[in-house]
Amino acid sequence: MEKKNRLQSIGPFERYQELDLGAQIADLKLIFYQQSLLLSALIDLLIEKGCIQREELAELVMSIDGELTVRLEENTPTEQRAQEDE
After folding, report:
1. Where are the domains of the chain?
2. In terms of DSSP H, where are the helices of the chain?
3. Inter-CA distances, 2 with 5, 6, 12, 54, 76, Å
4. In angstroms, rounded to a whole number, what is the distance separating the alpha carbons of residues 58 and 60?
5. Tens digit of each residue's pLDDT (9 = 90 or more) over 16-47
6. Across all residues in the chain, what is the average pLDDT?
7. Burial of 45 (0-12, 13-18, 19+ CB in 10 A)
8. Cα(42)–Cα(54) distance, rounded to whole angstroms?
């Protein structure tokens, strides 16, 4: 019943905005999937050609992830970090 009342109170423009947001999210999911597929294929090809080794790539990924994590923690307010540590 509440849902029906909510839908009646939403105007056509607001409904359009919600639909548009949903469509944008679907587009982003598709783009993310396509990019992931391409990246996976490129990595496999580079490994097959001997340009990189899987272990080297794994080390590089872990290194970059560690650097980004440190940067994010540095930019997180001190109060929020204290709550996360508890």
Report:
1. 1-52, 53-86
2. 2-9, 12-48, 54-75, 78-85
3. 5, 6, 18, 54, 39
4. 5
5. 888 889 999 999 999 999 999 999 999 999 99
6. 85
7. exposed
8. 12
Residue 73 CB contacts under 8 Å (≥ 6 apart), including other chains: 81
Q: Which amino acid is at 24?
A: Q
Dihedral, CA of residue 41, residue 43, residue 48 and residue 52, to nearest 10: 170
In b/e form, how buried is each residue of 52-83, taking b as 16+ CB within 10 angstroms? eeeeeeeeeeeeeeeeeeeeeeeeeeeeeeee
* Token code pair at residue 23: 């469509």
> What tokens does 66 get?
């560690």
Give the per-residue pLDDT at 1.
46
pLDDT at 17: 86
Beta strand spans in the chain (E) = none
